Amino acid sequence: QFCQLSGFLDNTAFACSSWSLALGSIERLFLVVFPMRHRQLMNYQRAVLLSFVIWAFSIVLSVLPILGWNSYVYSPVTFSCGIDPSSGGIHGYYFLVYLVVVLPGPLLISTV
Q: The whole model's pTM is what?
């Protein structure tokens, strides 16, 4: 049970921080490219909404292993619980989806 909670919190925090950095990059891009319309494009309500979407997306993505799509396992190498990369079949695809959505997605957005 502790490993499930630890893995969930770790993955949620990692996904949320990655996508929050990407959101900050998009906001800075709008500031540079559209300096006169920046206040219209990125207002307080939109920032709160996008932050909520990032948190909800991160939570949904991290709760899937608890619901049965893959699982969180203890790794003695890192001394933490994480997604099981050795799961076979349909469960193994979650690891690939997580790696594609959480790692390269925000990185590509941040570099644009």
A: 0.79
